[in-house]
Q: What sequence folds into this?
């Protein structure tokens, strides 16, 4: 029998480690979540769209075009000639740069040096000055045109805005200058190419950006062309199926680029 005057036994004190355990659990969960997100982002970046089998074949040198992998990406150059005109291509977001090999080889066969840039995680926004390397290394080229597809075009426009003395032309492929690349006062020759079946390009934003294009800009529409066929990497999610072949769309792009080269060669930096 317990004496009523005897006090009840005292509760055992909670150890500090027991009180802090929920915080440790939350911290570990947060670290695990961040690790998963970072891992997913890296996996996404390391598995870009393309290149297609046709693009891989276009990376092989031929009797008329030499293809070489360089420190900045890939160089396509006519065999046995030293061209004075060149094109630098910023790839689209999450697109393997090799996907632009068919277009690059076509333009090289027409007598131009073409540099396709390799950028971290296939995102040009992570290497906005990637064009510096070919512009400085390819000393024989006197006239440079800067090109970019989709997100790559945004970065090309920003480069043109920041370094107007470095290039003589701008080629936008299903792209437009953003607010950080207002080129409305620039006299640089430019061409903006869009496909009428493009399901990825934000046409509202593209229309709104037209006042930011250089004054000497030619708009080229490719009937039936889509977003994906500006490169060679298969059908991109959200895009429409093109009603023209990839070969025809590539030829239309190359023809427009050829016309821009003529204007760029006559351009003189103010």
A:
């Amino acid at each position: 029998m317990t004496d009523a005057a005897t006090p009840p036994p005292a509760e055992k004190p909670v150890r500090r480690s027991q009180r802090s355990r929920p915080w440790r659990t939350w911290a570990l969960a947060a670290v695990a979540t961040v690790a998963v997100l970072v891992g997913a982002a890296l996996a996404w970046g390391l598995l870009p769209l393309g290149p297609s089998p046709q693009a891989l074949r276009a990376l092989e040198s031929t009797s008329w075009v030499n293809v070489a992998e360089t420190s900045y990406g890939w160089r396509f150059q006519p065999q046995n000639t030293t061209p004075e005109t060149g094109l630098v291509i910023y790839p689209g977001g999450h697109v393997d740069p090799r996907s632009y090999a068919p277009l690059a080889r076509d333009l090289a066969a027409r007598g131009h040096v073409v540099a396709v840039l390799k950028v971290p995680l296939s995102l040009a926004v992570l290497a906005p000055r990637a064009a510096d390397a070919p512009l400085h290394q390819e000393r024989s080229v006197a006239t440079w045109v800067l090109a970019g597809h989709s997100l790559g075009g945004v970065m090309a426009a920003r480069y043109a805005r920041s370094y107007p003395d470095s290039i003589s032309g701008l080629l936008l492929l299903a792209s437009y200058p953003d607010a950080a690349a207002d080129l409305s006062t620039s006299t640089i020759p430019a061409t903006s190419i869009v496909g009428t079946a493009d399901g990825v390009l934000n046409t509202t934003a593209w229309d709104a950006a037209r006042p930011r294009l250089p004054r000497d800009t030619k708009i080229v529409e490719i009937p039936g062309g889509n977003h994906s066929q500006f490169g060679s990497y298969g059908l991109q999610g959200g895009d429409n199926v093109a009603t023209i072949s990839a070969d025809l769309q590539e030829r239309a792009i190359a023809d427009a680029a050829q016309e821009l080269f003529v204007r760029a060669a006559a351009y003189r930096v103010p």
Observations:
- The first helix runs from residue 16 to 46.
